[in-house]
Amino acid sequence: MTSNTKYIFVTGGVTSSLGKGIIAASLAKLLQAQGYRVTIQKLDPYINVDPGTLNPYEHGECYVTEDGAETDLDLGHYERFLNVPTSQANNVTTGRIYQSVIQKERQGKFLGKTVQVVPHITNEIKRRVQILGKSGDYDIVITEIGGTVGDIESLPYIEAVRQLRWDLGEDNGLVIHLTLVPYLSAAGELKTKPTQHSVKTLMESGVQADILVCRTEHKLPKDLRRKLALFCNVTTDAVIQSIDASTIYDVPNLMLKEGLDKIVLKKLALESSTPNIDIWNKFVHRHKNPKSEVNIGLIGKYVELQDSYKSILEAFIHAGAENELKVNVESVHSEYLNDENAELMLGHLDAVLVAPGFGERGIEGKITAVKYVRENNVPFLGICLGMQMAVIEFARNVLKLDQANSTEMEPETQHPVINLMEEQKNVKDKGGTMRLGAWACQLEPNSKAAKIYQTEDIKERHRHRYEFNSAYKGQMEAGGMKATGFNPKTKLVEIIEVEDHPWFMGVQYHPEYKSTVANPHPLFVAFVKAAFKHKKSR
Ligand code: GLN
Prior knowledge:
Layout: E1 6-12, H1 20-32, E2 38-44, H2 56-59, E3 63-64, E4 70-71, H3 74-82, E5 91-93, H4 94-106, H5 117-134, E6 140-145, H6 155-168, E7 173-180, E8 183-184, E9 189-190, H7 193-204, E10 211-216, H8 222-232, E11 239-243, H9 251-258, H10 260-267, H11 278-288, E12 292-300, H12 310-323, E13 325-333, H13 342-346, E14 351-354, H14 363-375, E15 380-383, H15 385-397, E16 404-406, E17 415-420, E18 435-443, H16 448-453, E19 457-464, E20 466-468, H17 473-479, E21 481-486, E22 493-498, E23 504-507, H18 522-537
Helix pairs in contact: 1-3, 1-9, 4-5, 5-6, 11-12, 12-18, 14-15
The protein binds glutamine.
């Protein structure tokens, strides 16, 4: 090994959805708070090259990094917890692994050898795991392995971990296994058997868990911890309880109490000290002790699924805490919204956010929502598709361009106020071809945006193919919708504001991706504040 980066592998057993990402992020937070430079990586065993082509129903939100990678939503948690940007290197899928191995094979790089899962696929996994460590930017790399031990798809990853443990040497790597200790209410007992089996399954692949993190609804008594340690071949202090928490933001403190950071550092032969998480705790305190509350509508079409708008919901939590307000997010299904029921569905809300999205389903409801809030002076934030819908609504109802639309929905529309970006016109492939990642944006001096950001130069993350059609800019501005943020090179419009409205903004980018505990996003903070002001004025 060239660098002395330490590696922590997080595997999951018994069932999915135990919160590996949150455990990884919480541990990383505690290590970071002791002065270590930490990053987290997610290995996803599915065959899609990235989650960009996955329906939100399948996999929740697609998170976008600064460098334009379309990634698993766990990377959002990593950034929100650590306040350090991630990149393409932080998310690897089986599809990506195979794609690069097959590409090398086509280039003749394997010199006539038979290309196999072991060693070629596992070597590529190992290389991807070590890219971050070899950058010299990190003391510790935490690698979360998606899926559950025993899945066919996970096998090459577990095998790569087994090999890496040998390659890295004794103190340089460890495995944390996250399992479930279920409570059987009929028996009134916590059960260790699923954990025993899961550790055994891991062992069948030659990997011994060093630390067990046990998800549980009830406290794990001492004797049960001893039993788990005995049967699972770990020390008792390496049995960590992860009890259900009312908020994910409690988990770092719960892990601190359990000493997860201490045992990890001990096993990696690193020094441990008391982590300084004052900023974190201040946030948690504000989050849990709001002085008042606001009701904000989230108009979207994936509202049944919490994960689809994960970053938006988290950004509201950060902004709420900053304002000492509880933000109740009320999901409104855009498909069922129309002019007749708008008052009923939206009338009680203190502010409305129209969500990002793709395709035609539910867009007329989004346009209805924009019309309602514009005419009734309700604070409005439109994100990506939400901004595009605000432009269409304004063109139709204020400029009286009845047929105004986006060419995404109606390719032959008479008034394409939103149309395909020039560089998108020849794009055929769907995966990884949108306008992605962080782009510079210049704000109009004295605009609401410039006041909120307190600067005129910002950088925000994008994920879209369509844009505001600048041919309509003159008409729009004359009608009262101002373009207040531009790409400095291409002059693409990135922000619109309605002048004679207390708070009406649409942004072509996704501010939610950049909101963190330590840095709540200024747009969300201002939006929540505007919601409270609106509430009080009624
Ligand atoms: N479908 C729109 C586009 O591609 C908006 C995308 C989004 O909301 N992320 O431009």
